[in-house]
């Protein structure tokens, strides 16, 4: 039985006692009326004052206990959320992925009129399943420090370049401007990511890259440590 239930029970006992007190006093008044004794009204008024004061105290106690109970429930819920987050961090111990641009065949990607998200379809490694080969987007499953690498290959006399973005914000650029033959460029960054943050690569407008079954263009990343 909780404290609130006990206090409520005491209040109910007091309320139930009132009719009994009235009945006793009424009987007592009938028995003593002929003798001219009228002490019962005074007695019952005193008892009622005491009961009213007691009820007021009980009501105040219940109000305080209800407020404390609500505060405790809020604190417990907050602690439960923190525990769930810690459990999630403990479960996600290893996250790493690496993917290349084309799943089969060979050919150019680009040029396009606008910056275009690159979808690295050939998944080499995807520990933790945080990389989506259908969208080209890596989504952080846990708060922590991550490292990403982006490598591109171009040929001919067309610029080869791509941005690395976090939640749509440009973080770095991997870029080469070939005049002939084949060129490659690589870049890497370490990022602090929150749960749900997204990292992806986007081909520069008017740029062109080449890939084949040799997997020249790669996008890789891994969790360094949780925070």
TrEMBL record:
It is found in: Secreted. PROSITE patterns: C1Q. Residues 48-96 form a coiled coil. Pfam families: C1q. InterPro entries: C1q_dom (IPR001073), Cerebellin_Synaptic_Org (IPR050822), Tumour_necrosis_fac-like_dom (IPR008983). Gene3D superfamilies: 2.60.120.40. The keyword Signal applies. Residues 90-227 form the C1q domain. SUPFAM superfamilies: TNF-like. Residues 1-29 form the signal peptide. It comes from the Eukaryota. Its main location: secreted. GO terms for cellular component: extracellular region. The keyword Signal applies. Keywords: Coiled coil, Secreted, Signal. PANTHER family: CEREBELLIN 13-RELATED (PTHR22923:SF102), CEREBELLIN-RELATED (PTHR22923). This is C1q domain-containing protein. The lineage of its organism: Eukaryota, Metazoa, Chordata, Craniata, Vertebrata.
């Amino acid at each position: 039985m909780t404290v609130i239930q006990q206090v409520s029970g005491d209040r109910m006992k007091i309320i139930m006692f009132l009719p009994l007190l009235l009945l006793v006093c009424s009987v007592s008044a009938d028995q003593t009326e002929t003798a001219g004794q009228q002490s019962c009204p005074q007695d019952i008024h005193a008892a009622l004052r005491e009961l009213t004061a007691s009820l007021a105290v009980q009501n105040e106690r219940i109000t305080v206990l209800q407020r404390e109970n609500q505060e405790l429930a809020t604190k417990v819920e907050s602690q439960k959320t923190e525990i769930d987050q810690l459990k999630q961090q403990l479960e996600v111990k290893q996250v790493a992925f690496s993917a290349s641009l084309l799943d089969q065949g060979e050919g150019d990607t680009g040029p396009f009129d606008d910056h275009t998200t690159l979808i690295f379809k050939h998944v080499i490694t995807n520990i933790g399943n945080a990389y989506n080969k259908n969208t080209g987007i890596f989504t952080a499953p846990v708060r922590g420090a991550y490292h990403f690498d982006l490598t591109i290959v171009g040929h001919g006399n067309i610029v080869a370049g791509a941005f690395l973005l976090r939640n749509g914000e440009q973080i770095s650029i991997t870029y080469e401007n070939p005049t002939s033959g084949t060129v490659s460029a690589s870049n890497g960054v370490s990022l602090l990511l929150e749960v749900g943050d997204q990292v992806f690569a986007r081909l520069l407008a008017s740029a062109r890259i080449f890939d084949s079954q040799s997997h020249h263009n790669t996008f890789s990343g891994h969790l360094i440590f949780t925070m």
